[in-house]
């Protein structure tokens, strides 16, 4: 795919959706594409563009177009084109899967190395920093408005940790510069969507850090949060953003694990690697996916079961890494 316009021309109804529990890149890419296609409605013959995402934090209300995102899946629309963004597999589409299954044409745009290329048209760039970076290359630059640039920029800063993660490339910075040239208030976007936290979010962060555990001689840090604790703080899973990154920066840690309970004996697992451990490989083993240094999955059982099932995979990789270095 070279241009998104060529893939949707003639489509009357278009649906856009991202993964369950959407993050900044997912929200940014879905919002940016929605705003972009709305510009071309008359030219491309589009009558309707709908975006479906699960509910997300108010910090993303800074973006134009997010108020038009649909959070319910109770209509029975049948779309000419369904576009999946930032989603590695069909099961990650959640309730939007029914619209995918009914669509005449499906498109998959992503940057996850574990992407399963599940659509009719697949455009996956595994070395891109974010889906927003991939999406930028599929748009006509002259039609990227200030509002679209803001959405793309937010997606990029969230998946690169404001350009500090190893997935940040020269191309990433060039694109960010071009987005800034559109006149976006980039400092405000960073502060309000990435760094700004509510008092409750900081309370939860502090508690998760205090109750974290160092294992494997300090090479792995693990923290978790229960549904009971979330209920106590009257918080949602969107309030947990950023906790895994605070765990990751603990000195000496090779792998950070954050486990959040989503249902009875049902957990969302987030993993970050600081060194050579491939957490994507571990996530894929348990039915998830992601990147070499940032990945996640869902797991069932007790909290101890989850930790005990994950740690042997990390230990095995650390052992292999040590053996390779000793042979070098």
UniProtKB/TrEMBL annotation:
Residues 218-317 form the DHHA1 domain. Residues 13-156 form the DDH domain. GO terms for molecular function: nucleic acid binding. Gene3D superfamilies: 3.10.310.30, inorganic pyrophosphatase (n-terminal core). This is Bifunctional oligoribonuclease/PAP phosphatase NrnA. It holds the Pfam family DHHA1.
